[in-house]
Amino acid sequence: MRRRMFSSLWTLIVSSNSSKRLIKMAWKKNNLNLSRNWYSVIRMDFLPFLKKKVSDEITYAEDTANSIALLGDLMKIPSSELRIQICKCIVDFYHAEPPKKHIPGYQQASSSYKIQMAEVGGLAKTMVQSMTLLENQLVEKLWVLKVLQHLSTSEVNCTIMMKAQAASGICTHLNDPDPSGQLLFRSSEILWNLLEKSSKEEVIQQLSNLECLLALKEVFKNLFMRGFSHYDRQLRNDILVITTIIAQNPEAPMIECGFTKDLILFATFNEVKSQNLLVKGLKLSNSYEDFELKKLLFNVIVILCKDLPTVQLLIDGKVILALFTYVKKPEKQKIIDWSAAQHEELQLHAIATLSSVAPLLIEEYMSCQGNARVLAFLEWCESEDPFFSHGNSFHGTGGRGNKFAQMRYSLRLLRAMVYLEDETVNKDLCEKGTIQQMIGIFKNIISKPNEKEEAIVLEIQSDILLILSGLCENHIQRKEIFGTEGVDIVLHVMKTDPRKLQSGLGYNVLLFSTLDSIWCCILGCYPSEDYFLEKEGIFLLLDLLALNQKKFCNLILGIMVEFCDNPKTAAHVNAWQGKKDQTAASLLIKLWRKEEKELGVKRDKNGKIIDFENLPGLSAEDFVTLCIIHRYLDFKIQATHKQRELANKSWEDFLARTSNAKTLKKAKRLQEKAIEASRYHKRPQNAIFHQTHIKGLNTMVPSGGVVTVESTPARLVGGPLVDTDIALKKLPIRGGALQRVKAVKIVDAPKKSIPT
């Protein structure tokens, strides 16, 4: 009898029209009898969803999804008992118990089926919307949060909840009174799930408003100052991670709500004493949660410093000074209770943080004697001082039992500062002997090969060479300090077995750094150049070029060109022999042909290039534009030639009075002919033309692949060697592009075709 009654009532629920009418009546008239009826229906074994056949789940899927969706609509009925019962019913989907009584011929639908139907029916949306009806009803609110916590384990539900503005709606109520502490716990769990299982960017956007950030700020402050239990500390860290994610959005008003200032204070109060009441008397323990908090605070500083207005707050908070307290050799712990492993990890994290923050705060870095501190720390890294590194963290990777991790991050910091190209910083480094120290560290490393940590060693070597390049570039005196010792370490890298370039360990990066150091530390310093040549450096460069690796070719060729200014270079180039007695000239020609092949350049049977203008898919107007570009480039070449001609006029006058006068005149005539020839090409005899009118330009455009168009009128450019000033008056060129001039009248070109 009870089952028959349930069946009839369930049919009523499934009937959406009648259900909505009942809900409307109960909502408007506050009909307690109707509410009790619904309560009785829902209470009946929490809607067991019995089925006779397996196919029933598919057959009645739509009805089931609609009926579950109605549970959310029933939350509108102002009955605490009903609302709680609905929530218990939904939670039961996720924690279903076996039926108390087995009914012959029926089976209970699986929990996964109920969960799936809840997703299809969009139950998550109505449950989110019901939160607005429960402003001052804590018990019901906690039950709804429990439901949303379960629903948010699904990506489908999280997407639905996110679209219903669940993130901002939940976040703004984090500080609502709740003696049980469940509200904050469940809310943070839901926010986590939304960030992980739905569009992270959209959730961040929802949380990036003043109201949400003020709520997060107050929660974090309260937990930081008054949270002493293991649970409170975990929750505090979770809130900080959520805040860090939001801070990645530059539009989030972190500074405006005062959160940035508080976070900087909390990150540095242990290292820089503060009289601020928020941290007065506070002390972090060496518990796992407090240790994680410290690392999270370092991390949030890196995120916050990307927003430039934060810089002044970093200065006021003495962040650089606080971080530098870790850049020193380990000492016996006196006040801070971190273990040796914890202190090492915080040390590496602090140095990594400095690499992001210090370049923004150069004055603070210098006032803290940053260069001296880092160089002194590097001396300890290189020393024989016994130190048993734990190497058990992200930053400590590869540093177990050695000081490679400390050296690695210190060099990253120096590299970041050197690449600012701030002369105050770089000059101070050079005066402190950085060039000699870097070369010494490099030589020490290569004298003690370490295959176990090869990747980290290669990174250290690359950074040393990049630091040296940054310091020596455009400074002859510093290149002289680099000297023969520096050339030796460069040559050492260049002699590396080429097969290692494919190992993936970092030899490619090291080679790039080495070639960069040749540019910056050797070229331009004649004693170093000569020493490089004496040690067969050109041979090594050509050996690398012969490897035919495109990523290195341009850089090597550039270096070779610069070295050719040294008169001693040619002999070395001519003396080089590669495999199968290949010469340098043969190698260069081979590279040229390879480049042509990659560009798709085509030649005829006589070796003449046949397609620089035969471009597919161009319209008539495109061909006209191509010709304009062509003529413009011709014009620029002529202008450049004129400038060089004027610059060399005095030299020509000198030669005119010598026996070379005839040779000079002949060369000049040949050059003029070459320029003139570049402007007028022969058109193919079989080209077919048709007349095209484009914005006042009357020209002949071929139907085939070659275009014939009138050259730029002589009255505008004045011939191949026209005076540059006059030409510029006629066709002004600014920023490398033709500009429209109102004073110049556009005249139709003659209809006859001139060969281009």
The major sheet is characterized as: 2 strands, antiparallel
Q: What is the helix content? A: 55-70%
Widest sheet, order of strands: 1-2
Number of beta-strand segments: 6
pLDDT < 50 runs, ≥5 residues:
1-35, 678-756
What integer value in Å does the Rg equal?
Answer: 39 Å
For the termini, the CA-CA separation is: 100 Å
Please give a structural write-up.
This protein is mainly alpha-helical and 756 residues long. Among the domains are: 318-432, no CATH class; 437-599; 620-738, no CATH class. The protein is 62% helix and 3% strand. The strands form 3 sheets. It has a two-stranded antiparallel ribbon with strand order 1-2. The chain has a two-stranded antiparallel ribbon with strand order 3-4. The protein has a two-stranded antiparallel ribbon with strand order 5-6. Helix 14 (210-226) runs antiparallel to helix 15. The chain is extended and about 100 Å long. The relative contact order is 0.03.
Notable traits:
756 residues, mainly alpha, two-stranded antiparallel ribbon, 38 helices, disordered C terminus
SSE layout and pairing:
Layout: H1 2-14, H2 16-29, H3 32-43, E1 50-51, H4 56-59, H5 61-74, H6 80-94, E2 107-108, H7 111-121, H8 123-129, H9 138-151, H10 155-163, H11 166-171, H12 182-197, H13 200-207, H14 210-226, H15 230-247, H16 259-268, H17 288-304, H18 311-316, H19 319-324, H20 340-357, H21 362-367, H22 370-382, H23 404-418, H24 423-431, H25 434-447, H26 454-472, H27 476-494, H28 507-522, H29 526-534, H30 537-546, H31 550-563, H32 569-575, H33 584-599, H34 620-647, H35 649-656, H36 661-679, E3 689-694, E4 697-702, H37 714-717, H38 724-730, E5 733-734, E6 737-738
Antiparallel strand pairs: 1-2, 3-4, 5-6
Helix pairs in contact: 2-5, 3-6, 5-7, 5-8, 6-9, 8-10, 9-12, 12-13, 12-15, 14-15, 15-17, 16-17, 17-20, 20-23, 22-23, 23-26, 25-26, 25-27, 26-28, 27-28, 27-29, 28-31, 30-31
